Amino acid sequence: MIETHCHLDYLKAEPLEEILKKIKEAGITKIVTIGVDPDNLDKVMELSNTYSEIYFTQGIHPHDAKEATDVEFNKIIERASMPKMVAVGEIGLDYHYNNSPPEIQRTVFEKQLQLACDLDLPVVIHTRDADEDTKAILKNFSSKLKRKGVVHSFTSTIELAEFVLGEGFYIGFNGIITFKKAEGVQEVVKITPIERILFETDSPFLTPVPHRGKENAPFYLPFVAAKIAELKNLDLEKLKIQVLHNSLQCFHKLN
């Protein structure tokens, strides 16, 4: 399995060497750790330079859009040719918290989508309580995005899921699907074709049942896979094989 979305630089419960050992024991061969703000773009790159199994992205999260400058955009451009930078992300819109003004979020999202088009890289998209604006912006860019990408940690409506699937994006599911009050996202899992699913943990957040209350980590990814297999009434090993293929298709530099 491939962990397609986590934040390794945020993990605190155990030393990273011990975490990486447990990840390997869980059958996870590659890990994508995500760039989100001006403070961690260098950190995720350095992790990938240190460990062979770690890959990274570069991008500014909507929470931090107000902090984005040409310094960060230039890092995305300069590092795009590095073999282990697999995507532009995490980018998108978050109107739930509005940590950055919505108009700035939209501008920074569009700027980074254009960078992904220019750099021929996929994107990692975050969207929360912003379905209509997410659709409107993606309509303007998806035809130019040759590599597409993933809408990660999906918690939106079936309507948005159908839209992004129709535009050629993958959908990333994590521990949220194991929660008791997750009927909505569980329905999205059921309607998402197996060929368009990615596994992720978004650790250290969103720890899956039965480990809620603990810090999340990529070695909990098997619980996400098992829940998707249950929801879709699929053989777990067949699902893992397909999702491994999906991960390599979405992030071509993982090959």
**What is the rounded Rg?**
17 Å
CATH superfamily: Metal-dependent hydrolases
- Helix content class: 40-55%
What is the global morphology?
globular
Report how far the terminal alpha carbons are from each other.
13 Å
- How many discrete domains? 1
CATH architecture designation: Alpha-Beta Barrel
The major beta sheet can be summarized as: 8 strands, parallel
Uncertain stretches of 5 or more adjacent residues: none
Bin the strand percentage. 15-25%
What name does the CATH topology carry? TIM Barrel
- Would you list the SSEs in sequence order as H and E? EHEHEHEHEHEHEHEHH
Count up the helices: 9
Order of adjacent strands in the largest pleated sheet: 1-2-3-4-5-6-7-8
Total number of strands = 8
Category from helices, strands and their pairing? alpha/beta
CATH class: Alpha Beta
**What is the overall pLDDT average?**
98
